[in-house]
Write a structure and sequence with these properties.
Blueprint (H helix, E strand, L loop, with lengths): L8 H12 L2 H6 L1 E9 L2 E4 L1 H11 L6 E10 L2 E9 L5 E10 L2 E8 L1
Parallel strand pairs: 1-6
Antiparallel strand pairs: 1-2, 3-4, 4-5, 5-6
Amino acid sequence: MTTPPALPLAVAAALEAADAGHIEDFLAAFAEDGVVDDWGREFRGREAIRRWSDAEFIGKHVTLAVTGVTTEGDTTTVSAQVGGEGFNGPSHFAFTVAGERIALMRITG
């Protein structure tokens, strides 16, 4: 059996916070000028990320069941089965971490 690579601390914190519905902890995982790229729509900065999340992510009671993790360079991609009151189905979350915070979370199918 192969052990998946360890998640960067900021990524693990963001996923745990999202799954638990804790918006403040989710936002704290991002750099001040961090970006969420949701299928090409960019939300830059914690307040923009909060508005996006309230409408489409944590505000929709998202659940994330991680199904895989890969890391290439400074990008960690987490595959997950997404549930909740919004989008449901498989998705990929590519995280770029700078220092101790998430600089970019790109969501794709």
